[in-house]
Amino acid sequence: MFEEVFAPDDFIYLYIKDYGGSEDIMFGNNTPEYLDELLSKQHVEEVKLYDIEEDYDELTGQIIEMKNEYTVKLVYSRLKFINYKEILKGIGNYEQGRSPSIGEPVYFISTEKDVVFHMYDDRGCDVFALRKETLAPAYYKYRKWILDYNRIEIDNVFEEGLHNYYETLKEREERIKADRLKVEETGIDLSQDNTCHITHSLVIPNYRAEECMNEISGTGFTIFIDYKKCKVTHLKVTKTEALAVIEYQTELMSLYSKKYDGEYEGWSVKRAF
User: Fold this and answer.
1) Which residue range(s) make up the domain with 110?
2) How do residues 186-206 score in pLDDT, each as one tens digit?
3) Burial of 66 (0-12, 13-18, 19+ CB in 10 A)
4) Is 27 a residue whose pLDDT tops 60?
């Protein structure tokens, strides 16, 4: 993905937010000075800034402002002179408890292409651009990687996939109510590890079934034919994921069923572990 967006000869800004040596409460495994070592051959500019956090004091009824100081480190260089692979690997190591690791937020910015790349942790990254045409090749090549809860928004940007398909307010309320009731019936605690094999059932007219399967198979789900009748095809769509995000999945399945003139029959679940 990174190399799809940037080329070796691109001039890149690295924007790094360094909060100092304070240990992360959850992970606490940042490798001190590792990022500085990777950038030791670069000219690094630094400036002190503050994040402002507001908290409400219930006793006094006052808003309390808290300043968190951090150092912005800026590097400007051709990409080929930046050890970006090790930087990305270090970011991925952070929440995995591996070394060396990088806990500082790092943004790769191209002002020529108007693109910002931010890998937030081992789970994935965000890529932003001022023009959708800039990211279109990455969208088509890596659309399987789009998270379920981002897919509809991103499809609408590129006017593809589920663009212009919506639930009515009543449909949405009924679906969410049914989802939450079914989650309660499973007895699975969503505050604990809730990784599950989730299977959705769709009934699609035969003349649209192949088209439906082709689209859904390109979104990170596994899809197969359960059985066929004279007019309709019964499809199973599966993914192993946290049950906590079931409402995003059911929204997608509901809209795919609507797009292909079919019906969404619901979902079943089995613990993965």
Assistant:
1) 2-141
2) 999 999 999 999 999 999 999
3) exposed
4) no
Q: What is the pLDDT of residues 111-140, one digit of tens each?
A: 999 999 999 998 899 999 999 999 999 999
Tell me which amino acid residue 134 is.
Answer: T
Which residue type, as a one-letter code, is found at position 173?
Answer: E
**Nearest of 253, 146, 136, 132 to residue 204 by alpha carbon:** 253
The side-by-side arrangement of strands in the sheet containing 263-271 is 222-228, 232-242, 195-205, 263-271
Q: What are phi and psi of 205, to 5 degrees?
A: -55, 140
Which two three-digit tokens encode residue 167? Answer: 């639930």
Write the CATH number for 238. Answer: 3.30.70.970
Which of 49, 50, 86, 45 is closest to 66 using CA atoms?
Answer: 50
- 246 lies in the same domain as 117: no
Tally of structural domains, the chain: 2
Say if residues 82 and 10 touch (Cβ distance below 8 Å): no
The CA distance from 183 to 200, in Å, is: 14
Contact 239, 269 (CB under 8 A): no
Catalogue the E-assigned strands of 28-114: 44-56, 63-78, 106-110
User: How close are the terminal C-alpha atoms of the chain, in Å?
Assistant: 31
Report the pLDDT value the prediction gives residue 95, as an integer from 0 to 100: 83
Helix H or strand E segment including 179: helix 169-186
Which of helix, strand or coil describes residue 111? Answer: coil
pTM: 0.85
Q: How far apart are CA 81 and CA 42, in angstroms?
A: 9
Name 256's Cβ contacts closer than 8 Å, sequence gap at least 6. 162, 202, 212, 215, 216, 264
